[in-house]
Write a structure and sequence with these properties.
With 270 residues, this protein is of the alpha/beta class. The protein contains nine helices and nine strands. It has a single domain, classed as Alpha-Beta Barrel (TIM Barrel). The protein has an eight-stranded parallel β-barrel with strand order 1-2-3-4-5-6-7-9, surrounded by seven helices. The longest helix is centred in the middle third of the chain and has 16 residues. The protein is globular and about 60 Å long.
Length: 270
């Protein structure tokens, strides 16, 4: 199982762009397999746009994967979004792994003037347009003319709840599934994984796993949601549990970007 990391700038005493990109560089240095970025708009807290953040990460890293978990596609126009994603994929040397979804927070749609009720329809319509553009096909008046190095665009992983109708779509039409481990109990994670793999699905990502190694905690049961708010030994056991279920990736969220802390978290699973 690969271990990726998301850097939460809300905890930083002085959340400058320089300190954020330095955290990205250090994440690669200590051995994380991926840098992953969340997507929120209009919720009263600032997070950098995930496509912009991946482009910044491309300039300070060389090998690490760059992913979104997840990008809310219906908040954007598909041609413009396809262009920005392809640009980040090009700038990173083909390292983008695109986790996408419909979104589930109505505030983001209200803030951007988009239709919350029509988000599933809009996602289903946008993804084929983006793929066609990345293959070099024309969509209306648009043709992105992708370079050979990034033709076809990045792999697409569908973010959805375990019981969603998008699970078989993700398995049969796209490159993987992203689940939010922090908001899903372990029994449901297991069910979702089994369902996705039963449909012939590929890559599985358990995302949104907050870390606080200073908290004492007991072992989890199947009724518990999964986080790493616990001591180091228990944190290792929880990551081992995800690996035993079969997940290909676990994405942890850290609130301290120091090299020592990032190295400590990375060492929890190898």
């Amino acid at each position: 199982m690969r271990l990726g990391v998301s850097l939460n700038i809300q905890s930083m005493p002085t959340p400058s762009g320089r300190s954020y990109t330095e955290g990205m560089r250090l994440a690669e240095k200590v051995g994380f397999d991926g840098l992953w970025f969340f997507d929120t708009v209009g919720r009263g807290t600032f997070r950098p746009d995930p496509v912009s953040a991946m482009s910044a990460a491309a300039s300070v890293t060389e090998r690490i994967e760059l992913g979104t978990c997840i990008l809310q596609v219906p908040l954007r126009r598909p041609v413009e979004l396809a262009h920005r994603i392809l640009s980040a994929h090009y700038l990173s040397g083909g390292r983008v792994r695109l986790g996408v979804g419909s979104g589930s927070t109505e505030a983001d749609f209200n803030a951007t003037g988009n239709d919350f009720k029509g988000r599933f329809r809009d996602l289903a319509a946008a993804l084929p347009v983006m793929r066609d553009l990345w293959r070099g096909e024309s969509v209306g008046d648009a043709n992105l003319t992708p370079l050979d190095s990034v033709k076809g665009g990045p792999p697409i992983l569908i973010g959805s709840w375990a019981g969603s109708r998008w699970i078989p779509i993700a398995a049969k039409q796209y490159d993987g599934w992203v689940s939010s481990a922090h908001f899903t109990n372990i029994a449901t994670l297991k069910e979702g994984y089994k369902r996705f793999k039963g449909e012939g699905g590929g890559r599985t990502v358990a995302s949104n796993i907050p870390v606080d190694l200073t908290v004492d905690s007991k072992s989890l049961t199947d009724d518990d949601n999964l986080d790493l708010r616990c001591g180091p030994e228990e944190a290792r056991a929880r990551l081992d549990l995800l690996a035993e279920i079969g997940f290909d990736d676990a994405i942890v969220t850290v609130f301290d970007f120091s090299e020592d802390h990032l190295a400590t978290v990375r060492a929890l699973f190898s």
